[in-house]
Amino acid sequence: MRILFASSEAYGLVKTGGLADVSASLPAALRRRRQDARLVLPGYPEACRNLVDATPRPGPDGAPWQIIEGRLPGTRLPVYLIDWPEYFQRAGNPYSASNGMDWPDNAQRFAGFARAIVALARDEAGLDWAPELIHLNDWQTGLVPLLLDPERTGVERPRTVFTIHNLAYQGLFPASTVQDLNLPADLWHPEALEFHDQLSFMKAALIFADAITTVSPTYAREIQEPVHGMGLDGVLRARSADLHGILNGVDYSDWDPARDRHIAARYSAEDLAGKAANKAALQTRMGLETNPDIPLLGHVGRMVDQKGVDLLHAACTPLLEAGRIQLALVGSGQKDLEHATGALARAYPGQVGVHIGYDEPLAHQIEAGSDLFLMPSRFEPCGLNQLYSLRYGTPPVVHATGGLADTVVDATPENLEAGTATGFSFTPDSVAALGAALERALALYTARGDGHWEQLMHNGMARDFGWTASADAYLALYREQLPRRSRRAKAASAL
Predict the structure, then answer these.
(1) Is the pLDDT of residue 56 over 50?
(2) The pTM is what?
(3) What HEC string does 161-208 produce?
(4) Does 18 score more than 90 pLDDT?
(5) Which positions are tagged coiled coil (predicted)?
(6) Average pLDDT estimate for 60-88
């Protein structure tokens, strides 16, 4: 099957979050299943530098962009970068300038990216290749299903699957943007592009895509309810028959303590000796007291309200005051949360270590060196760090929402006795509930001589959240989406 995977970021080329991990791993997993999957990304400077075997190719006649063709590092996955200097050759990250402010022309930038995807879909870019299906990801690709809509264009096109990685980021722009982007004026109403007098790229995809997926079964249910639907729950309920929750996978070639090149000492479920060496290395790296006995709690994530960083601060402060824990925190985001996190480190020197920003090797070291991993997210479409934590024998403490609820088995007495527990979960998303979960976790850690703690570690390390099951589920969905005539043609060609 010819599959074009379209994303605004991919690990190995450019990364700001979990979308990049999925965008690198899923199409590579599809290639391993003998599918002709290819990836298209904007041609950011970092992506252009990291692309393997980069070869420039002209774009369509008269287009202000060209294609840079190459491979994703470490894979055979073909990549097309849309080299549009006016939009993508600039300092900063994919969505914002170095000062943290969104690029003011993001609507134009990603509408341009969408139109380039359409040109690839119609084989207008001189590649002599066209996809049967396009897998689109998040609002940055949201206009593609509309631009390809056959009822408007009268042109046959590939099927479209759109994945919601986080409904909170919807690509909202002023109403005047509809005219600026030359979008159909007759679609400016609440049943189409209008979202409270704003243009919503996300809503365009939810209405015009052939199928919609999101990244965990629980999140697929949650976003059809007002509390998590971000104002789009009605649209999603109307399309519930086309909405599928498929859990993200993990690339264990990158995230496995038995072969991780970023950590101080490798280890496995069969030999956990390296865990202590990683804890000591993390304590040293983060400026913490080197103490093998005090519980070390780690956290890696964006410092935004969604991630519950304020809950983490409030619940951990009394434990720090009593000298019961250490904290190692990595992330960046809202300036108020960055400043509050820095203030926590200054208030508890030797107990709290903070790195503002993202550091991939340090993220691996935190997974390997922490005793517990904290994810008190108010909502979490899937989450990847809890999956990494399980593989690294670092029981996660999570709010029971979205993918966190789907992947972490709470260490209740019953689950501990049954040997199924893998971490600690709590609800609701409050300081008191998180504090109670931490007390349960610390009590089990303190009594680890009884064998329950090591069993908890082993249970998590034994869970398999690799891409096999997830890629198979996506492939099954793709096959359901192929037009009947395409399926008949394939059957006939096989005879």
Answers:
(1) yes
(2) 0.92
(3) EEEECCCCCCCEEECCHHHHCCCCHHHCCCCCCEECCEEEHHHHHHHH
(4) no
(5) none
(6) 97
Could you give the CA distance from residue 167 to residue 172 in angstroms, rounded to a whole number? 12
How large is the average pLDDT for residues 135-153? 95
- Residue 321, pLDDT > 50, answer yes
- Mapping DSSP onto H, E and C, the string for 462-490 reads HCCCEHHHHHHHHHHHHHHHCCHHHHHHH
Across the strands, what pairs with 55? Answer: 69
- In the three-class reduction of DSSP (H, G, I as helix; E, B as strand; rest coil), residue 13 is classed as coil
Q: Read off the pLDDT of residues 344-380 as tens digits, 9 standing for 90 and up.
A: 999 999 999 999 998 999 999 999 999 999 999 999 9
Count of residues making up the chain? 495
Of 140, 189, 128, 132, nearest to 1 by C-alpha is 132
Residue 55 has pLDDT above 80, yes or no: yes
Q: Is 398 left (phi over 0), alpha (psi -120 to 50) or beta?
A: beta
Contact 60, 125 (CB under 8 A): yes
Query: How far is 282 from 392, CA to CA, in rounded Å?
Result: 14
Hey, is 93 helix, strand or coil?
A: coil
Over residues 430-457, the mean pLDDT reads 96
Q: Quote the tokens at residue 181.
A: 């982007």
Binding residues: 15
Q: Is residue 222 a contact partner of residue 379, using CB atoms and an 8 Å limit?
A: yes
Domains of the chain, each with CATH number or no CATH: 2-249+468-494 (3.40.50.2000), 274-464 (3.40.50.2000)
Cα–Cα distances in angstroms (integers) from residue 470 to residues 30, 257, 335, in the given order: 10, 22, 36
Residues placed in the known binding site for ADP-alpha-D-glucose: 15
Please count the other Cβ atoms lying within 10 Å of the Cβ belonging to residue 279. 27
- pLDDT tens figures, 383-416: 999 999 999 999 999 999 999 999 999 999 999 9
CA nearest neighbour of 163 among 375, 349, 6, 338:
6
- Cα→Cα distances 9→19, 93, 440, Å: 7, 10, 38
What pLDDT score does 485 carry? 39
Q: Letter for the amino acid at 113?
A: F
**Residue 141 identity:** T
- Computed over every residue of the chain, the mean pLDDT equals 95
